[in-house]
Amino acid sequence: MLSYSHTPTPAHTHSFHPACQPHYLPTSLPLYVLIILTVGIILTGCNQSGKNTASTEKSKPYIASDIPVFSADSAFTFVATQVDFGPRVNNTKAHDACAAFLTAKLREYSQEVVVQSGTVTAFDGTLLKFQNLIASFGPSGNNRILLGAHWDSRPYADHDPDEANFYQAIDGANDGASGVGVLLEVARQLRLKAPPIGVDIIFFDAEDYGPPEALQEGLNSGDFWGLGSQYWAKNPHLPDYYAKYGILLDMVGAAGATFLMEGVSMEHAPQVVKKVWDIGGMIGYSSYFLFQRGGYITDDHYYVIRDRGIPMIDIIHLDHTSETGMYKHWHTVDDSLDKIDPGTLQAVGQTLLTVIYSEK
Ligand code: AHN
Ligand code: ZN
């Protein structure tokens, strides 16, 4: 059976500063071989369930009887509610209003919610008010997993095809809201049935306030992304907080999403990537979880690994066929609710629930 070390891994200093867009470094990682049988043991007793609520035939998953069924409709509504506030850019009313909504929802599902607030400094010196929101579920102790997504939205559509939009804030339906929507539905399920291990859900703030593309050349060396996760990783909500592994969601809602095996995740938590991808494939979502390497992304998981020593992976929509290597509408004004597909939310959410409730 797969197992994970409980000892925090030391922060790595070599080959550990990925750039914004995916890039590739030579790697000596071994060839990954599908050990479907190993996961098959975890999931013995699987039956083809008709309980799932997804609308399309191809997304009908295999759900073992003791694993909750994710509601894609519920997750979609959570995404829509966030987008309805308008762009959740730090220091705006929409941001405050969305924080209040997310906090209330987490309190509805968990007795243990911590709102961690403060200020961080942006690339241009702007002081950003931020709120990291953390909800805990299940048993206490170090046998726990951390699930995260960022909830802020980017002030700049600096990859828009029209440069007139470069300084427009984005809806961030996929980039931000989708991951939070999936995790709110996971939280709702965790409330309905206690998980076998501890689970913490964290909504990171100020992930996406990195410098606009036009300035990035001169500002490449700074840690201007993931400001909320950097703060939390250095000042966790509990002083000695540790989780055996973490899973970050980023852009998990677009129709036809492809989750490539992201570089930082593969370098620091390959066994977690493999476990999640195996389970996703096992329950019927192999068209989303591709056994294909993607580039290195500076996302919140990077700081959780570097500054907290928790091996965390990023489930992120990467696409070799797009110009940026990311989701086609990444950092454009077209990252809007109409691109969100409940079938993709279902694939990610049901995979996460299967991972959680298969834990010991
Ligand atoms: C950068 O663009 C630096 N990192 C990608 C992380 C990200 C931004 N994910 C969504 N928006
Ligand atoms: Zn972004």
* CATH architecture label name: 3-Layer(aba) Sandwich
Question: Could you give the order of strands across the largest sheet?
Answer: 1-2-4-3-5-8
Average of pLDDT = 88
Please, how many helices? 10
- Uncertain runs with pLDDT below 50, 5 residues or more? 1-15, 25-57
Largest sheet: 6 strands, mixed
Question: Could you spell the SSE succession in H and E letters?
Answer: HHHEEEHEHHEEHHEHEH
Share of helical residues: 25-40%
Relevant CATH superfamily: Zn peptidases
Number of beta strands? 8
Percent strand equals: 15-25%
Q: Report the bound ligands by name, code or SMILES.
A: N-[2-(1H-imidazol-4-yl)ethyl]acetamide, zinc ion
Structure overview:
This protein is α/β, with parallel strands linked by helices and 360 residues long. The chain has a single domain, classed as Aminopeptidase (3-Layer(aba) Sandwich). Helix content is 31%, strand content 15%. The protein is built from ten helices and eight strands. The chain has helices at 36-42, 72-84, 93-109, 173-192, 213-216, 227-234, 263-268, 270-282, 300-308, 342-357; strands at 112-121, 127-137, 144-150, 198-204, 245-250, 259-261, 289-293, 312-316. A six-stranded mixed sheet has the order 1-2-4-3-5-8, sandwiched between helices. The protein has a two-stranded parallel sheet with strand order 6-7. Strand 1 (112-121) and strand 2 (127-137) form a beta hairpin. Helix 2 packs across helix 10 (342-357), helix 6 packs parallel to helix 9 (300-308) and helix 8 packs across helix 10 (342-357). The longest helix is centred in the middle third of the chain and has 20 residues, at 173-192. It is globular and about 50 Å long. Mean pLDDT is 88; it is low at 1-15 and 25-57.
